[in-house]
Amino acid sequence: MNFNEKNIDLETIIRDEVNKYLNQDVSRLNATEQAPKELTQKYEKMPIPKVGRDIYEVLSELNNEVLTYLYRPNHKRAFSFIPGPASRLSWLGDILTTANNIHASNFKNATLPISIERNLINYLADKIGYEVKPSGGVFVSGGSMANLTAVVTARDRKVSLDKLTKTTVYLTSQTHHSGRKALHVAGFPSENIRIIDHNEDFTMNVSHLKETVEKDVKNGYIPALVISTAGTTNTGAVDDFNKIADICEAYNIWQHVDGAYGASHLLSTKGKSLFKGIERSDSVTWDAHKLLFQTYSCAMIIVKDKNNLINSYGEKAEYLDDITSDDDVIDPEMLGIELTRPARAVKLWLTLQVIGEDEFRKRIDYGQELAEYTKDYVESLDDFEIISQPSLSILSFRYYNDSFTDEENDHLNNLAAKKLADSGYGVAYTTTLNNKKVFRMCTINPETTESDIKETIDRLNRYILEEVKEK
After folding, report:
1. E strands of 50-92, at which residues?
2. Do the beta carbons of residue 468 and residue 458 sit within 8 Å?
3. What is the domain range of residue 145?
4. How many whole angstroms separate alpha carbon 96 and alpha carbon 113?
5. What's the Cα-to-Cα distance from 398 to each of 99, 189, 383, 388, 394, rounded to whole Å?
6. Average pLDDT score over the chain
7. Looking at residues 314-336, what average pLDDT do you find?
8. Which end of the chain is more exposed for a tag (fewer CB within 10 A), N or C?
9. What pairs with residue 399 in β-bridges?
């Protein structure tokens, strides 16, 4: 073993790096910045040295290059994707759990961190409307892993593996792509994935779902799973869980709700009214590294009956006999895919304990208010139109001038989004809705102001008008 670390004053270095971060004003940095090609090549081809390098030289590269060219999801003018405006309390929790190198697989290895995880799963299950017993769940890396965990659980509960070729699943074009990825990994044939129409507000068309299920049953298929969404990434749309549950209960279908983004609105004042019937679902994906303001990665899969998780993931290993729990105390490794796993729940617990639920509610409500402000401001501008109304904290809009072709208008919207990102001031990338290129904004950062939104939209407008003048 190389003990070169003994010659390094790590205590001072760590203190200096932490202070540097604490004194950093992210809003003064570029919201996004792309690394030049020469740096990409430098790090892709950098050799591993036979003899270690000077730590200050390596830290200089890390701080001035590697950590400079990034998309910053915690920037107050980062409106694309689902931003990750993480609390510094979460960051602190991350530091402390990582420093202790916790192996959070079972109670005997990490009794209190896992007790915290179990407590938070119960807290969140109650917010969904599940009974604390027999509901359960586990913290995972993100929405993709949560969706995969749910899909495999649903498969094992509803169909035998030898009948997968006759098993059908249902989702819309607005379902997050991780749902389709999970279905592929779980072995569902792609030709058995039914894409259900969506309504004008981008929610699942329940009439089409019912017709499709009935047709499949008539043709000898086994409907097994519907993936509904609580807050789609594109528009923030929330499906009608009650109507979907009626169909699922009639045909013995598992309803999984992908609430990676939207489920946190169950803590809000206004948004939670959209979630009626979510308690009738069988499982819910919920990301804490979105609207619960946690650092990556921190997400949960929560099921109405934890025995279904145990059925899929409760394998036995002899070398774990001495540390395996029994009775009502179920080790996390028996509820999901991971054995080696960090104590993700601790940082969320720290944040909730210090900030409190009321403050979370205020922050989530504020994001919805900002979305409404964005709508009002866009509507005050010439040649701009709202494409999807604010839902939760997401809306979309576009520049449209009937003097130009659809292709030309799409080009103008794309160009303005690129120029905004290149400037570093903010990020409001486009998406495609109804075959139109549109700006999409997600306004969930508690530090974002109305001035930030106004200036972002003004810049988009200015970039477009500059291009129009040159035509």
Report:
1. none
2. no
3. 95-355
4. 12
5. 46, 37, 8, 10, 14
6. 95
7. 70
8. N
9. 384
Give the whole-angstrom CA distance, residue 393 versus residue 369: 8
**How many domains is the chain built from?**
2
> Using CA atoms, how far apart are residues 127 and 143, in angstroms rounded to an integer?
18
Mean pLDDT of all residues in 371-380: 98
Give backbone dihedrals phi and psi of 103, rounded to 5 degrees, phi first: -100, 95
Q: What are phi and psi of 211, to 5 degrees?
A: -60, -40
**End-to-end alpha-carbon separation of the chain, Å?**
66
Q: Return the DSSP state at 66.
A: I
Average pLDDT over residues 280-308: 97
Smallest CA-to-CA distance from 138 within 1, 2, 342, 290 is with 342
Token pair of 201 as six digits: 């507000």
Segment 241-256, tens digit of pLDDT: 999 999 999 999 999 9
The C-alpha atoms of residue 151 and residue 256 are separated, in whole angstroms, by 8
Q: What is the pLDDT of residues 146-172, one digit of tens each?
A: 999 999 999 999 999 999 999 999 999
- Domain-ending residue, one of 316, 334, 355: 355
Residue 239 corresponds to which amino acid?
D
Hey, is 396 helix, strand or coil? strand
Question: Helices marked H in 55-87 — which ranges?
Answer: 55-61
Mean pLDDT of 378-390: 97
Residues 265 and 390 in one domain: no
What is the DSSP code string of 185-227? HTT--GGGEEEE-B-TTSSB-HHHHHHHHHHHHHTT-EEEEEE
* Mean predicted confidence (pLDDT) in 436-449: 98
Q: The CATH number of the domain where 388 resides is what?
A: 3.90.1150.170
Question: How far, in Å, are 8, 17, 19, 97, 294 from residue 12 at the CA level?
Answer: 9, 9, 11, 20, 27
Q: Give SS3 for 276.
A: coil
Q: Residue 99 belongs to a domain with what CATH number? A: 3.40.640.10
Query: Residue 208 is encoded by which pair of tokens?
Result: 């089409």
pLDDT tens-digit series, residues 77-108: 999 999 999 999 999 999 999 999 999 999 99
Burial 236-268 (b: 16+ CB within 10 A, else e): bbbbbbebbbebbeebebbbbbbbbbbbbbbbb
Contacts of residue 7, Cβ cutoff 8 Å, sequence gap at least 6: none
Residues 333 and 382 in one domain: no
Percentage of the chain surpassing pLDDT 70? 96
Residue 86 to residue 78: CA distance in whole angstroms: 13
- Cβ atoms of 170 and 225 closer than 8 Å: yes
Q: Does residue 372 share a domain with residue 325?
A: no
Q: How many angstroms separate the CA atoms of 361 and 359, rounded?
A: 5
Check whether 1 has a pLDDT greater than 50: no
Is the domain of 137 the same as that of 253?
Answer: yes
